[in-house]
Structures are given as structure tokens and as C-alpha cells.
Write a structure and sequence with these properties.
Heat Shock Protein 90, disordered C terminus, disordered N terminus
Length: about 425
Amino acid sequence: MKPARPRPDTTPPAPLQGDGRIDVVVHCGFAVLMVASGVRYVMRHSPADNLWTMALAGAVCVLYAATALLARRSGAYSPARDRPGTQPTPWLPWTVALLGAWAVLVVAAPSFAWCSFAIFFLGRSALSGWSAYVAGGVTAAATAVGLFRMSDWTDVAMVLGPLAAAALLTLIYDKIERDAALQRRLLADVSQAQEQLAASERAAGIVAERERVSREIHDTVTQGLASSLLLLEAAQRSWPEASARDDLFKATDLLRHNLADTRSLVHELSAPGLETGPLAEALEHAARQYVESIAVHVTGDPRPVPPEVRHTLLRVTQSAAANIKLHAGARNASITLGYLPDAVTLDVYDDGRGFDPAAVPPPSAAGGYGLRAMRQRVHRLGGELSVESSPGEGTIIAAQLPLTGSSTGSNSSTGSATGSNSETKGSP
């Protein structure tokens, strides 16, 4: 089920409301305009008029500073203030007092009308909902009355100008807030999608790792134990003949190799001879743990191959050789390693009893995982694996792996494919 989308009112604030640098510019602008307006008023009016007007201007400055400080400390810029049912803001009385004092000041002394812009932005930032619109309307109306009075009540433009400017600023401010809210929602969606993607990648990684470990266990531990069991059963049947002792020695040696592979798997170490030494020798070493007489042939010019390709070729060889020993009953077996310009091929052949590839049973507790594991390994690297076999005609398992990232892999020109009677006969 898709997680619920985070509520917009719990996301970070809009840039205009939360950006401290904008607040500083607005507050500094208010201070500069108040000083400039005060100087202009003092120079144009008598000392008697100056006293009360400047006292009121000082009160406006104090109320402005208190409102701005309380609003910031109390989280006026948090979107949580827009929630329905939110309690009245603690700085609301200060804002009301500021607007009242400002209205009286600008009507009595229109020289201070330029400060209306800072008052407007402070009201919109500190308040929300209908109260913010009321604050903007009061600021615009007081400014319009003050300027109209300054024109001796004759210039209608002094009334319409502040009102039009307030309407325009309100539309712009609302548009910025809507864009900011949309941006917050988009960021929340992106964050949610990233979390879901990370969770999916973790789940996919777990599945892939389980499949990898399953293949490793099948190609090392399971195959080795199955071969050792056959040797021990053969020794039991022929005991106390001399051949039984040879079977015991072989089983013991195979179990030692199996133990080494198990420790390597547990500690995430590479198989012996995989990272160093010629690839053909590594394949021969892996195959002769199961088929002692197997021959290895190399075609093309040998060259280094990526570690993951070496590892896959080794495991395919181990699985195919184990199946030859367990199921094929072959007299002869061989491995052909081929180097192409952009790929490497591997053919594992045996002249054993063969099987029908179309009748491969699904994997079960009795076995049947070998061929599937080989295909998974090869396909994971962009290669292809094919099987050619028929009852009584032996088996060829052929794998081709690309050596370049852009290669997708194709059937090798060697044509056929490797392997042993693999899982169709219940290989482990």
C-alpha cells in the first residue's frame, strides 16, 4: 500500500516567509525609510507638531520591532500556523497595535507613507488567512487617506495608487505562496519516491544476494557433498577390496576441497586460482575435482578477462563437471575455452548417456538446480547458455560471455553448449 503523502502544512516554509535575508532587507528598509521620513517631516513642520508626531513614530518603531521579533521567535513563518483551528498567534495584539498606530501616523503625517511597504510585508508574514488580508487592507487604506489628505482632498490618484499597489502586491504575494506550497508538495513527493525506491532497491538487493548465495552453495558445497556421497557409497559396496580404499581417499580429498570452498564462501573469498593464474588452469583445477581425466583446450589468443567473468566460467565448469560425474556415466569429457574479439566461450562436452533438454523437470528438493543456476550466472553478465543433448548421444553445454559493457551476448559460434545431464536427472 502506498504510504500517505505528507501533509503540506508539515513541510518546510516557503522561501519568502522563511528566508531570513529577505526579512533583514525589509526591516532595514523600514528603518531607513522611517529615518528619512522623520527628517523630512521635521524639516517641513513646526517644533510643536514635531513633538507628538515623532513620539508616535517612535511608538510605531517599537511596535514594529516587537512584532517582528515575537513573530520570528514564535514561528510565524512556519506553515503550521495555517492549520484550521490553530490558536491565535501571541503576537496578534502587537500587530493590531502596530497597524492602529501606523494608521494614525500616516494619516497625520503622510511623509511616512513610504514605510507602508515594510508594514504590508510584515503583516503578511506575521499573519495568515483572512487576518493577513485585513492587515494589508488597513495598511493600504490608511496610506490612501494620508496621501489624499496631503493633496487637500483633491487628487483621486492619491487614493487609487495605494489601493492598486496593495492589490497588486497581494496578488504577487499569494502567487509566491502558492508556488512555494506546490514546491513543498513536489519535494515531499520526490522525497517519498526516493524512500520507496531505496526500499525497493534494498529488497531487490536482498533477493539478488539470496540467489547469489544459493548458486554459490549449489556449485560448491552441494555438488561436492553429492560427489563425496557417491564415492563413499561405492566404497561401502566394494569394501574391503582395494578399490574401496581409493574411493575413500578420493572422497576425503573432495571433502577437503569442499570445506575450503565453504570457508571461502563464508568469508566472501574468491575460489582458488580464480584471481591469479591462467584461466585455463583454474578451469582445469575446478573440473578435475569431479572428473579427473577431463581435458582442457584453448582456442584463440588468451588474454585477461574481468573477475566476474572468470568467476562465472569457473562456477559453470564446476557445476557441469559435477553433473558429468553424478549423472552422465561418461568415458570421456573435455572443456574448450575460446577467446573471441569481444567475448569468451566455454564448451563442456561429455559422451555420457545424455538427456532430453525439453523434458527438464522443475527444481525440487531432490535437485534440478544446476542448469538453472548456470543460466542465471551467464545471463546476469549479458551472456547466453545453451544445451545440446539427446538420450545416448552425450551432452554439450556452451556458454558465451561478452567482454565489453555494450555487448549483450549471443550464441557462440562453437555452437553448442555444455554440460552434463544436469538438472534434468535431478542434479543437485
